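Tokens in:
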């Protein structure tokens, strides 16, 4: 046992992950079924919160969709009844995460811990047992497509790779905890890993990257596009063979621009603090969900199933590996679409598209004072495709006013903002809005949440703190 790394369990889990990659969809469903039955047993025996919620659903043959949905607020209110180890308390965890010296340290000597900065109030704290950490590590290192045909899909520091993580580098966030763990797993390769903070001026980020010359850069799409623009103007001079993105939506125009300006492959990844590796991108550029270790249910706003080919209102997550802080039919808040056809890559794992990351729609005024909803995905598409704007933040001031901010200045940006404002107003008018005013501002640094992510569309009662 090395901190939160149980090497024997990691080995067994890695073999299972490799075997599942060659299995049939039916064999993966059989794994799901078996792991779900085991999870339900744990819930009934070990979590008093879930035992209470499931008291009328004890039939082991009951389908998943007949079981109750649970939300984050309820879990946090009854945190000590949720976790299955009585030694874990929310109070103790808050003390732990308040100490920056303890980032990446195993809690109680055996649990991985990280937090996510919520949209309001105290952060949610996530506790991972040894099995869950082994699943994270195995999926992260093994389930990844080669960047070029025939190339090695694995990328470890010390195998010639220099990996830069560009993000928030302090705080008990999952990405920071994982980098600390990686450095403890590969102490001989610590020089090949670099954490670069985005809380410093962009010029300093560029300077650090130029000096480090990474072969791989892991970051958020909003940072990747900013770096790509720096490369285009000659300030940044790096030659990575890949950019790994995650944490925010990666749109097709942003992906194409990053790939073109940085002359490298872009690989996206879909994860959440609740489950770090929900889906990985295959060689065909599609996201495959790791359904051997999780279950995803796309549902509408009343938690009814949404068929493949249709975007969900939210998604229910069931974590089939974590027994210490179990998640069954947990409302993740993200909007996904299950593909109707299998992928050409031949993977047995289902294909999903992620269209929204917990993004609330904007609500503006329509005819007769009726509310009109503007969807974040549509807004970002309009601004990217019709105005060529990739780095921006659209904040709603009130029912009739939006503020469009960009970090750049100059005549070209002013022209792009004018085009963007017009395109947004046209889109909003088609949706039924009246008298929408768009204020534009240049030279404004994008406001990031505590964990470094950017919400490109910010509703008035949501926080950009992600
Ligand atoms: Zn595929």
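Residues out:
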């Amino acid at each position: 046992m090395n901190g939160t790394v149980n090497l024997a369990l990691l080995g067994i889990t890695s073999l299972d992950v490799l075997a599942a990659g060659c299995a049939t969809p039916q064999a993966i469903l059989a794994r799901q079924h078996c792991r779900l039955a085991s999870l339900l047993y744990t819930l009934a025996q070990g979590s008093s919160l879930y035992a209470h919620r499931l008291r009328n659903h004890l039939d082991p043959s009951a389908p998943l969709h007949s079981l109750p949905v649970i939300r984050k607020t309820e879990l946090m209110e009854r945190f000590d009844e949720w976790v299955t180890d009585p030694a874990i308390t929310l109070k103790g965890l808050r003390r732990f995460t308040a100490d920056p010296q303890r980032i990446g340290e195993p809690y109680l000597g055996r649990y991985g811990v990280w937090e996510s900065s919520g949209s309001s109030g105290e952060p949610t704290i996530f506790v991972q047992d040894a099995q869950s950490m082994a699943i994270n590590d195995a999926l992260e290192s093994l389930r990844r497509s080669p960047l070029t045909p025939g190339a090695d899909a694995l990328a470890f520091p010390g195998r010639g790779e220099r990996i830069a993580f560009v993000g928030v580098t302090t705080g008990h966030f999952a990405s920071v905890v994982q980098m600390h763990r990686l450095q403890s797993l590969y102490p001989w390769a610590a020089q090949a890993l670099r954490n670069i903070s985005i809380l410093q001026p962009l010029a300093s980020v560029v300077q650090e990257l130029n000096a480090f010359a990474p072969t791989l850069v892991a970051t958020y799409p909003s940072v990747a596009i900013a770096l790509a623009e720096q490369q285009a103007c000659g300030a940044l001079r790096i030659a990575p063979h890949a950019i790994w993105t995650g944490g925010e939506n990666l749109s097709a125009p942003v992906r194409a621009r990053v790939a073109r300006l940085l002359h490298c492959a872009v690989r996206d990844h879909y994860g959440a603090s609740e489950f770090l590796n929900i889906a990985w991108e295959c060689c065909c550029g599609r996201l495959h969900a790791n359904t051997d270790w999780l279950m995803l249910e796309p549902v509408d706003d009343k938690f009814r199933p949404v068929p493949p080919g249709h975007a969900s209102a939210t998604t229910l997550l069931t974590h089939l590996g974590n027994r210490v802080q179990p998640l069954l039919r947990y409302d993740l808040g993200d909007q996904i679409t299950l593909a109707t056809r299998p992928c050409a890559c031949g993977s047995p794992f289902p294909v999903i598209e992620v269209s929204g990351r917990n993004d609330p729609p904007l609500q503006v005024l329509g005819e007769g004072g009726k509310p009109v909803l503007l969807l974040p995905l549509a807004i970002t598409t309009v601004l990217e495709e019709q105005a060529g704007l990739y780095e921006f933040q659209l904040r709603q001031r009130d029912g009739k006013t939006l503020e469009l901010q960009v970090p750049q200045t100059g005549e070209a940006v002013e022209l792009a903002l004018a085009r963007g404002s017009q395109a947004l107003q046209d889109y909003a008018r088609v949706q039924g809005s009246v008298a929408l005013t768009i204020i534009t501002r240049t030279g404004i640094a994008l406001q990031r949440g505590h964990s470094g992510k950017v919400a490109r569309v910010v509703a008035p009662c949501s926080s950009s703190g992600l």
